[in-house]
């Protein structure tokens, strides 16, 4: 069941794949709408989800939800608990589907994407996205990274570039919009022993073709070829 509240649609995570991080302590709430209304009142800028227990009538306010990342130990709801996650979905504009773009949604995050059908070098991937009035995908939040991982694994299942490089200063990774890689993401997105800082490995990719079933991205030469994902603003 969904609830319309302030142009948001509160949606139950029936898949069990979504999680969030608590914004505060639990409180008692008599209903799901009341729980979310209190979350929005107490955390108007950051409340984007809630964890509710129907039997205990407990409510935990949550931030933006994301697909499960096992190495994040603080996320909720906890495995095998009777708590249920509800996330807010915003009403989004239409996706311009020219050039093969389409809508993709995961745990409340919705984006308009083009998935490449071929591999190319990093610079060519950036230019191809620009030519289609879009940008190479930037996964600068947990929600956007988990969506990137899901799409690159389950839709492409290929080595896939992100727009994340350390071209300017070795070891200091920066997104394509100029935003530095946050400490939170730096702790969670890398594969074991990555980034290893080998010479000329200044780009970043998911290596699904090389290391299937292993979570995390690798630093990688920009001159090697990989698949890529473009995002078009909506």
Automatic annotation (TrEMBL):
It comes from Plakobranchus ocellatus. Residues 112-231 form the C-type lectin domain. It comes from the Eukaryota. InterPro entries: C-type_lectin-like, C-type_lectin-like/link_sf, Ca-Dep_Lectins_ImmuneDev, CTDL_fold. This is C-type lectin domain family 4 member e-like.
């Amino acid at each position: 069941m969904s609830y319309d509240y302030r142009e948001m649609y509160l949606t139950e995570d029936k898949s069990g794949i979504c999680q969030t991080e608590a914004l505060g302590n639990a409180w008692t709430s008599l209903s799901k709408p009341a729980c979310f209304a209190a979350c929005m009142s107490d955390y108007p800028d950051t409340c984007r989800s809630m964890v509710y227990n129907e039997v205990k009538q407990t409510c935990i306010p949550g931030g933006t939800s994301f697909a499960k990342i096992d190495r994040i130990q603080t996320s909720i709801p906890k495995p095998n608990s009777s708590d249920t996650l509800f996330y807010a979905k915003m009403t989004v504009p239409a996706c311009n589907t020219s050039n093969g773009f389409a809508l993709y949604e995961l745990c409340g995050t919705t984006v308009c994407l083009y998935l490449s059908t071929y591999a190319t070098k990093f610079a060519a991937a950036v230019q191809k996205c620009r030519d289609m009035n879009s940008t190479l995908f930037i996964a600068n939040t947990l929600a956007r990274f988990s969506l990137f991982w899901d799409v690159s694994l389950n839709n492409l299942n290929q080595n896939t570039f992100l727009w994340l490089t350390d071209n300017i200063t070795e070891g200091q990774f920066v997104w394509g919009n100029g935003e530095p890689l946050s400490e939170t993401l730096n702790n969670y997105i890398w594969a074991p022993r990555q980034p290893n800082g080998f010479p000329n490995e200044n780009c970043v990719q998911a290596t699904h073709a090389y290391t299937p079933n292993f979570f995390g991205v690798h630093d990688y030469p920009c001159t090697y070829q990989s698949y890529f994902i473009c995002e078009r603003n909506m």
